[in-house]
């Protein structure tokens, strides 16, 4: 039995059915991601000054992933054009590039996630000062101000460590290598410090490679990796980017299916095959458009 | 809306992002004391933006017989 309106246009909608179905689906996706973006923006502008973590995501890596997705959208559009012109072999080559871009995007995202799972914040019972520990110079604008939380890498902590897991392991101290800056410092304050360091001809701020600070486990009030429970920011970050990554994975599966097992349809019904790429391409462009919004919102603002 | 129209919309959004990002990175370098790397990323972003403009022109030429619906 032939499925109606796979290639011919319906009079009432002016489109073939697959395209109508995809646009209805994308409308529901707009509501899903729109709600998440709205929630993020409201939480962000409602946060108290200095309490919203910022500057914790790797901008060059995020920019690279943006470039990868833009490239994948270009190859999808060009592969559809190639099919319209009857050039199946060019379509195949371009779609392999699309799939490679998608897999690269997911790989980079997985690496970014794993970096976050190894990165920690420690909230202290007894504060420290940058006067005592010069490595904390980037954690406060005042050398004598009490520092109640430190962000950085902890030696031998692995990923997902908690205060309870450290206590279970019988650890009495941990050594943390502080980040160059704490997120409580605004971008302007961080910049002023960098400028001052450059003017002084050196780098006073610390990096992870420099000496760690030993912290008594008994002095730790809370410890969390950069995981969803760390803060509202990371909860939103992992929800948004995780959901987006699932969509990318869905696109990979759909493209791979059309490219290999379903490719015999090209010989039987080339127009229907071309339409299936157009519909999947619409989904792919939506997923990429979500990232075009997510990148500046999460990484830059 | 066809894939052609959606693709052009996507390119427009990507252009805004790329040139906006280039401006942001320049602001970071000149105003916020960012590193020279920020300046390079900003330059690369505007370069990609220009390449994308040329691509959009090429795409429009290539698909002049395909409708926007």
List the helices and strands and how they pair.
The complex is a heterodimer of chains A (301) and B (69).
Chain A (H helix, E strand, L loop, with lengths): L16 H30 L12 H26 L3 H30 L1 E10 L18 E8 L8 H6 L4 E6 L8 H13 L13 E4 L3 E6 L6 H28 L5 H4 L1 H31 L1
Helix pairs in contact in A: 1-6, 1-8, 2-3, 2-8, 3-6, 6-8
Chain B lengths: L2 H28 L5 H27 L7
Task: Describe the protein's architecture and organization.
The complex is a heterodimer of chains A (301) and B (69). With 301 residues, chain A is an alpha+beta fold. Chain A has helices at 17-46, 59-84, 88-117, 163-168, 187-199, 232-259, 265-268, 270-300; strands at residues 119-128, 147-154, 173-178, 213-216, 220-225. Chain A has two domains: 32-116 and 232-300, Up-down Bundle (Four Helix Bundle (Hemerythrin (Met), subunit A)), CATH 1.20.120; 118-227, no CATH class. In chain A, 56% of the residues lie in helices and 11% in strands. A five-stranded antiparallel sheet of chain A has the order 4-3-2-1-5. In chain A, helix 1 (17-46) packs parallel to helix 8 and helix 3 (88-117) packs antiparallel against helix 6 (232-259). Chain A is elongated. Chain A starts with 16 loop residues before the first helix and ends with a helix. The model of chain A has no long low-confidence stretch (mean pLDDT 93). Chain B is an all-alpha fold and 69 residues long. Chain B has one domain (3-62). The N and C termini of chain B lie close together (5 Å). The chains are: A alpha+beta (301), B mainly alpha (69).
| Count of β-strands of chain A | 5
Q: pLDDT below 50 for ≥5 consecutive residues: which ranges of chain B?
A: none
What is the H/E string of chain B? HH
Quaternary state reads: heterodimer
Alpha-carbon Rg of chain B, integer: 15 Å
Largest interface between protein chains, with number of residues from each side? A-B, 38 and 31 residues
What's the overall geometry of chain A?
elongated
Instruction: Summarize the helix and strand pattern of chain A as letters.
Output: HHHEEHEHEEHHH
């Amino acid at each position: 039995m032939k499925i109606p309106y796979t290639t011919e246009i319906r009079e009432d909608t002016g489109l073939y059915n697959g395209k109508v179905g995809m646009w209805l689906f994308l409308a529901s996706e707009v509501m899903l991601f729109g709600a998440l973006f709205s929630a993020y923006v409201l939480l962000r502008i409602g946060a108290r000054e200095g309490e919203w973590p910022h500057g914790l995501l790797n901008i060059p890596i995020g920019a690279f992933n943006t470039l990868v997705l833009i490239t994948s959208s270009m190859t999808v559009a060009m592969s559809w054009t190639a099919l319209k012109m009857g050039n199946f072999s060019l379509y195949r080559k371009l779609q392999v590039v699309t799939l490679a871009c998608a897999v690269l995007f997911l790989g980079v995202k997985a690496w970014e996630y794993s970096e976050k799972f190894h990165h920690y914040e420690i909230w202290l019972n007894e504060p420290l000062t940058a006067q005592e520990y010069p490595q904390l110079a980037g954690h406060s604008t005042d050398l004598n101000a009490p520092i109640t939380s430190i962000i950085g890498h902890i030696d031998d902590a692995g990923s997902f460590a908690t205060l309870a897991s450290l206590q279970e392991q019988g650890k009495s101290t941990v050594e943390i290598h502080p980040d160059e800056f704490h997120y409580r410092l605004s971008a302007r304050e961080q910049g002023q410090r960098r400028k001052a360091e450059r003017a002084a001809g050196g780098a006073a701020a610390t990096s992870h490679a420099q000496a760690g600070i030993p912290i008594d486990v008994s002095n730790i009030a809370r410890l969390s990796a950069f995981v969803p429970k760390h803060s509202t920011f990371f909860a939103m970050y992992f929800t948004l980017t995780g959901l987006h990554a699932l969509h990318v994975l869905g696109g990979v599966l759909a493209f791979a299916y059309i490219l290999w097992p379903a490719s015999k349809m090209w010989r039987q019904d080339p127009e229907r095959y071309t339409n299936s790429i157009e519909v999947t391409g619409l989904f792919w462009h939506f997923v990429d458009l979500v990232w075009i919004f997510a990148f500046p919102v999460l990484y830059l603002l | 809306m066809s894939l052609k129209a959606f693709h052009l919309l996507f390119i427009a959004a990507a252009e805004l992002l790329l040139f906006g990002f280039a401006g942001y990175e320049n602001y970071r370098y000149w105003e916020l004391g960012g590193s020279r790397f920020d300046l390079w990323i900003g330059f690369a972003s505007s370069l990609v933006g220009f390449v994308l403009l040329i691509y959009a022109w090429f795409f429009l030429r290539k698909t002049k017989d395909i409708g926007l619906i």
